[in-house]
Amino acid sequence: MTQPAFRRARSTEAKQARETAILDAARDLLRARGVRDVSLGDIAAEVGMHKSALLRYFETREQIFLELTAEGWREWSAALRADLAARTAATPAEVAGDFAATLAARPVFCDLLAQAPLNLERNVSLEAVRAFKLLTLHEVALIGEELGRLLGLDEAQVLDTLATATGMAGALWQIASPGPRLRELYTGDPRLAHAVVEVEPRLHRVLTALLTGLRTPQRHVP
């Protein structure tokens, strides 16, 4: 089957439209297959263009996914901050619940969170990494304002909380999505039942413990 002709974008608007189409196609494929099972060729075929043509818009497959990770950070941050902003006061468990619920509702983002430091950031330009890191720091600072207001967390505690939440969400999503053959193995043997993980309740418990500990005054041993 031959690829349909895909004319190169000439104007800025046309280029942006092509980039949006590529990101949309990649996002759809990620929802269906997950990061590990989507290739650059898959994305090109979904858009209807050759891989060589796609590389005029994005330097690597990983850059496409890193763009989607940045998009995920913006969307998740906005949703989390909206939930936190609606609270005039909150317990560590309630804040942890908002974190867990908003992350678990975004499985593609969780998948990308796990892949970003392992693969995505290592296969793009330094400028792409810099832009991504600055964006995440901006979103962390915005979330930190709410965590400071509700729980009195300082900057270091905010960073610890965000690193734990996003790192655990990425790792737990991978564990919770083993594929049909492994899931059948785990559910079919009672000794392996612990391998079947639900992201939201586990993340809620871990973050509740973390936030409770951060709010507990530390006694200094002389």
Can you put this structure into words, describing what you see?
The chain is mostly helical. The protein has helices spanning 12-33, 40-47, 51-54, 61-85, 92-104, 107-118, 126-151, 155-176, 180-188, 199-215. The protein is globular, with a radius of gyration of 20 Å. The model is unreliable at 1-6 (pLDDT under 50).
Tell me briefly what this model is:
With 222 residues, this protein is mainly alpha-helical. It has ten helices and no strands. 71% of the residues lie in helices and 0% in strands.
Structural class: mainly alpha
Percent helix, as a range, is over 70%
Cα separation of the termini: 76 Å
Residues in β-strands, percent = under 5%
The largest pleated sheet is described as: none
Total DSSP E strands: 0
Number of continuous helical runs: 10
Cα-atom radius of gyration: 20 Å
Catalogue the unreliable spans.
1-6
SSE order, one letter for each helix or strand: HHHHHHHHHH
**What general form does the structure show?**
globular
Which features characterize this protein?
single chain, 222 residues, 10 helices, disordered N terminus
List the helices and strands and how they pair.
Elements: H1 12-33, H2 40-47, H3 51-54, H4 61-85, H5 92-104, H6 107-118, H7 126-151, H8 155-176, H9 180-188, H10 199-215
Helix pairs in contact: 1-2, 1-4, 4-5, 4-6, 4-7, 5-8, 5-10, 6-8, 7-8, 8-10
